[in-house]
């Protein structure tokens, strides 16, 4: 995210919550949320784990200790899925937009470069 993006988030949080956050604290929180989302997706696709009726993961304590050793905030997934799972999916479902490219359906992207140059001459002679 650019500096302007972080500033927009800081301003938005100030308007909504009347709290001032630094760029670093916002960046850290986004990193935590992305890590929670990635770990939850990993748990969903891991075939050796069971599921409880409430949707939480049923795994032995060794599995949790191994995977949450340096990230204690992931331990809350032991008891329930993330409360904001839908929003996390919207943020990090695998699509990346950085503005460096664009796609327009039906555009040939220069495959016919130079082929249209002679069309103007043909149209003038056709009149």
TrEMBL record:
- Cross-referenced PANTHER family, in alphabetical order? OS01G0545800 PROTEIN (PTHR47069:SF12), PTHR47069
Q: Where is the composition biased (Acidic residues)?
A: 118-127
Q: Where is this region: Disordered?
A: 103-127
| Record lineage | Eukaryota, Viridiplantae, Streptophyta, Embryophyta, Tracheophyta
Q: What is the organism field in this record?
A: Zea mays (Maize)
Tell me what this protein is called. Answer: Uncharacterized protein
